[in-house]
Amino acid sequence: MRNFFGIFFSRYILAGLVAWTAAQLIKTLLTLFMTKKFDSSRLLGSGGMPSSHSAMSVALMTTIGLRVGFDSAVFAVAMAFACVVMYDAAGVRRSTGKNAATLNQILDMLSGEGYMSDEERLKELVGHTPLQVVAGALLGILIGYLFGTVSIQA
After folding, report:
1. pTM for this structure?
2. Burial letters for 108-124: b for 16+ Cβ neighbours within 10 Å, e otherwise?
3. What is the per-residue pLDDT for 132?
4. Max CA-CA distance within the chain?
5. What percent of the chain has pLDDT over 90?
6. What is the DSSP letter of 39?
7. Burial of residue 100, with CB atoms counted within 10 A of its CB: 0-12 exposed, 13-18 middle, 19 or more buried
8. Residue 136 vs residues 26, 58, 85, 153: alpha-carbon distances, Å
């Protein structure tokens, strides 16, 4: 049981969690700055600048590379995982958001503007632009570098 709880103190998991949290906080602060309104949904929501999924997966990949080696099999798996996550964020998920926006517009036209409640509308902000993905990846590299190089004493 001792090893199971050690997972919560793993530098690899912590790197990913810290990167995801940092990206979500940055996203929330950027929304506050741009709209002058606090939007609590940005704390956990997907989409926006920077990509928290990219930050998390790249932080994990970077930490593994620095600690285990960039020529290791586990780094190769982490790199493949990060690439799939980033491709999905800027490709499939972004297309899903565009489709949702178009469907919401069609439904608004058919039913009258504002007829649908917020719960009935399809979620439009699910993917990322390439810039948002790159920003998340850069944040992940920075946090991964910190977790990969700084000595952590338990």
Report:
1. 0.75
2. eeeeeeeeeeeeeeeeb
3. 87
4. 61
5. 43
6. -
7. middle
8. 10, 8, 11, 28
